[in-house]
Amino acid sequence: MALSISTKEQDGRMVVAPAGEVDVSNAAELRDAIDSALAKGDKPVELDMADVTYIDSTGIGVLVGAAHRASEGGTTFSVARPQRNVARVLDLLGVTKELNVRA
Question: For residue 8, what are the domain limits?
Answer without folding.
Answer: 4-92
